[in-house]
Amino acid sequence: MNNALLSYHDAVLYRSGEPYRILAGAIHYFRVHPALWQDRLRRLKAMGANTVDTYVAWNFHQPRPDQAPDFTGWRDLGRFIDLVAEEGLDVIVRPGPYICAEWDNGGFPAWLTGTPGIGLRCMDPGFTAAVEEWFAHLLPIITPRQASGGGPVVAVQIENEYGSYGDDHEYIRWNRRVLEERGITELLFTADGGTDYFLDGGSVEGTWATATLGSRGDEAVATWQRRRPDEPFFNVEFWGGWFDHWGEHHHRRDAGDAALEARKMLDLGGSLCVYMAHGGTNFGLWSGSNHDGTMLQPTVTSYDSDAPIAENGALTAKFHALRAEFYRAQGIEDLPEIPAELLAEAPVVPARSLALPEAPDLLDLLRAAGKPTSSVKPLSFEQLGLDAGMVLYTSEAILPGRADAPTESRLKIAGLNDRAYVWVDGDFAGVLDDVTGAEGLVVTGCGVPAKLEILVENLGRINYGPLTGHGKGILGGVLINQRYTFHWTQIPVALADWKEDDLEDLAGTHFDVGQPADTYIALPDSGKGFVWLNGFLLGRYWEKGPQGALYAPAPLVKAGRNTIKVLELTKPGTVVELREKPDLGPEEAGPITAAELS
Predict the structure, then answer these.
(1) Would you name the residues annotated as active-site residues?
(2) Peptide bond into 168 cis (omega under 30)
(3) CATH classification of 362-495 is 2.60.120.260, yes or no?
(4) Is the pTM of this model over 0.90?
(5) What's the burial of 530, exposed, middle or buried (CB within 10 Å: 0-12/13-18/19+)?
(6) Which residue ranges make up each domain of the chain?
């Protein structure tokens, strides 16, 4: 690595031989409409940053194993890096293969994690072979854009927070070797939590170890001085805000609190990357999920993350507070003027209320949504080759009882991942989830066959922890009391692949505008479902909140007529609202504190 632009010794970071400090912010190209990449990068630069950090989401580029990775259009990672160079910023690339990032499946393709018996993030030959093939496509995008070749890429991360998952150091060293053998010559580093425990699992000798943490930075610096005394401290993920789960409150971190924590690490000579500087949006079905050991915790569509640069690009109070710290770290007290175009509010479509016609029958839509597949036992999403969306399972079961004496039974779903909507003989029976599935629903029978239809919705694949890679659908079986039901038909509902022709039968409405502008789409009297704007899947909505409106950036809005389509799963509404401001939900618990991020 002698030719790397960045180097270090005696706990000092150097750039071209001069003492240096990384002042960075994370922006994920896959969460920002490509027409807005340059705008968001300019806002980051105005914050005083010298570097942009991005993950690479493998599943975003290669959702199917029989197709080569796609690096065009929204997936044009090379163009994103080139735009960073045009803005005079450096780039840190974090290629994984695991990224977490609250992104579906932690960035892994579902076809990979669904491989029977595969060992993830370790020296399993099936896993490492797939990663090598992925890197063979990815790294030729990155290597010619390294600083050694005149590009902006100054550092590349090895894996991601591995100390939170495993202890296969041979795998980390293999990952490092693969990057080097395929042409990465800039500075390589690992990233882990700021304690001994995480360093024990994720760091290896001879490779710069960086930190990920939102508080107690001084304690982490002390740990580095003890454990990695020759290495400069770099918090590559300073959690200045936090993400939201459905059914919880909206997280917000006080701007002053975040700035004070940043100052603490910068005053101790550290480098810093704000995660997220601009979060963007989990468009489509890319939101991941967490699991707390008891239940699934799906992430909302917005990834605003209470970042300095808001989801719509607005410069927040946190932007100005962290900007002052970034410039202070450079010895600049008199801050330069921010360009006027960055301070101006983004134009919005005028608020209006649109009538939403009556929704078509949901079961009729689902029955015609795909090609049926038959099996004896229920098939998982992975067995059906479906990464996201829904599956309609259909079978017949004899429900105990007699015509003259109907009997109540329990319909149970073993291994339900994630949320099931149940109909018996066409009548809606209720909803089960990963917790209530084992308890089941009460159903009434008369001793004759009844038609069971179960729609299972994938709420987002787990992106962090030991359950990363878990399957979706009905993984155990369906029981009437203790008796299994066999012989099923499955219809995959591949929502992410639906085109405008597939949306024709959905409830829809229209609005006209003179010029494209941002808007926020809300369905105040609907229950739970999905929204498309001009054929583009914006994402999920859910009345349980906290998010109350979906962000639609101006590049998705057309001059003239625009079409909104809605697929409602539980409670069809009568109105769609176009709003002028975000609605990320109430901050019921108040601002999060540094202690909560430790």
Answers:
(1) 161, 237
(2) no
(3) yes
(4) yes
(5) buried
(6) 22-343, 352-359+506-579, 362-495
